[in-house]
Amino acid sequence: MIDLKGKTEEELSNFFVSIGEKPFRGKQMYQWIYYKKESTFSKMTDISKSLRDYLKEITFISNIKLLKRYISENKNTEKYLFELSDGNLIETALMRYGETPESARSTLCISTQVGCALKCSFCASGLKGLVRNLTHTEIIDQIIQVQKILIGERIANIVIMGIGEPLANYENLIKAVNMIKNSHGIGIGKRNIVISTAGLVPMIKKLACENTGCKLAISLHGYNNQIRSKLMPLNDRYPIEELLDACRYYQKITGDRITFEYILIKGLNDDLSGARKLTRMLKGLKCIVNLIPLNPVKHFPYEPSNILTCQCFVMEIEKYGINATLRTERGRSINAACGQLRARWDAKQET
Ligand code: SF4
Questions:
Q1: Architecture of the domain spanning 2-60
Q2: Does the model's ipTM exceed the 0.90 cut?
Q3: Ligand 1 center to residue 232 CA distance, Å?
């Protein structure tokens, strides 16, 4: 049986030609799967019954399975736990930004791997290491499945910063991104897609030449190598200097502004002299620093910086001419930090 989900428009056209049909059937099927988010052949009424019956015999349209949907008390964050066909679990999170429900813009944070090899100390996803890469189909299916259950609400932005290191699953990432952008299907514009990395230097350089048009975010989290290595072991392999060189290269090729994510952790990386060091490091880069108070996880013995410290840190950075935003912590009531839901679910199954 052939899975039609995951095939590009061209691959679908080739498939239909291979079974003696006209190539336009490919575009038709592409729209059913990715635009209308349909996976039941009998509902594809513009396809003849005989062809639908034949498709049922030789093909299928896979779906990752929604196990749980969690909604935060204030309804601005949702989290989904999906089961893959091999029983592995992944998480996807939806965040609503905006003053009113009518003006809210929804951003979906999607995963690219089951687990993660990078073992950042503040993250629950790295606890059990990497299990496997997601296929490009599993990456885009998170968007399809969530969009299907949202009523009257369109996902406007995609951030690829859920479980896993996206650039460590490069080929599937690029294929998924190209399909997310295709206006005959999911149709989310390149400027509304953010690819986030913990700092895989060679892959940042490779991405620079890929011409995806997507935005790049870098998890920085420390203003010197000592702090960053404590939080992100990857820093021992690619220290801050090399990472920022790769960012400069990326910017030279793409001309794009880069976002630096920085988790504020009480007493560890939130002092004002550190804020000043950060601005010196980033000098000359067209960038914005996204500051986020730590979302506590059980195994990491630190607390988020208090709100006053966060605000002072932001002001100090801006004083030196670097744009910065302070994001509010979201979804603590539903374990919205990366990997917490999966870890909690696994623990529950093991008891
Ligand atoms: S923060 Fe991202 S890169 Fe680091 S362990 Fe978690 S999933 Fe992996």
A1: Orthogonal Bundle (1.10)
A2: yes
A3: 8
